[in-house]
Amino acid sequence: MPKRKYDLTGKKFKMFTVLELSKEKDKNGKKKWKCKCECGSIRYILAQDLMREKGQKSCGCNLAQSIRQARTTHGMSKERLYDIWFAMKNRCTNPHDFNYKYYGGRGIKVCKEWLVFEEFMKWSLENGYEKKLSIDRIDVNGNYEPSNCQWVTHKVQMNNTRRTKTLTFNGKTMSISMWAEEVGMKRQTLVQRLSSGWTIEEALTTPVRKRN
């Protein structure tokens, strides 16, 4: 059996100490090294992941510790605003977050200032935050930053998602649901009119016939 180019046994990488070369392999057949984290957990990691600068730092225990520390430094850990901030940051920076593909995966970022909770909290309290409101990006393809965010009701936020079809009439742009409410008709009625080939003006201005 050919000798390996390097032996990592006993070496330390960030919070990991390499114990031995294991029998564990990745999908390409590369062997993994058995490593022990400072917290005592055992992980099996490829050499390339240990040695690269941005490689795995720990088994995850340091992340959990950082979250606990962040939740206690400002006294807001149990507040709804903190949960909003944490979810916002996570979906833009954590590839393992369920919603990452819709945010960070599309290039949407959280501005540097708001990566610090206290700064986000200060902006929120100065810009109309209330417990019944949600944070909304004015440009749904833009970043989370002061110039592109506002606090709105859940209804308004849902009408600002990139999945919502909008209509523009007389210089005003709103979703189909909001236009239906504006002119006093059911959303289904407005959708049917547009699907039948009505112009936007006809669909919005023609009175709904009342059934006898």
Report on this model:
The protein contains eight helices and eight strands. Strand 2 (16-25) and strand 3 (31-37) form a beta hairpin. It has helices at 47-51, 61-73, 80-93, 117-126, 154-158, 176-183, 187-195, 200-205, and strands at 12-13, 16-25, 31-37, 42-45, 134-137, 149-152, 166-169, 172-175. The chain is elongated. The protein has a four-stranded antiparallel beta sheet with strand order 1-2-3-4. Strands 5-6 form a two-stranded antiparallel ribbon. A two-stranded antiparallel ribbon has the order 7-8. By secondary structure, the protein is of the alpha+beta class. Helix 6 packs across helix 7 (187-195). The N and C termini lie far apart (90 Å). The longest helix has 14 residues, at 80-93.
Q: Gist?
A:
The chain is α+β, with helices and mostly antiparallel strands. The chain contains 8 helices and 8 strands; from the N terminus they run E-E-E-E-H-H-H-H-E-E-H-E-E-H-H-H.
| Count of discrete alpha- or pi-helical segments spanning 4 or more residues | 8
Percent strand equals 15-25%
Shape: elongated
Query: How many runs of DSSP E, i.e. beta strands?
Result: 8
Helix content: 25-40%
Q: State the order of secondary-structure elements, H for helix, E for strand.
A: EEEEHHHHEEHEEHHH
Tell me the span between the first and last alpha carbons: 90 Å
- Structural category: alpha+beta
Average pLDDT, rounded to a whole number, is 79
The biggest beta sheet is recorded as: 4 strands, antiparallel
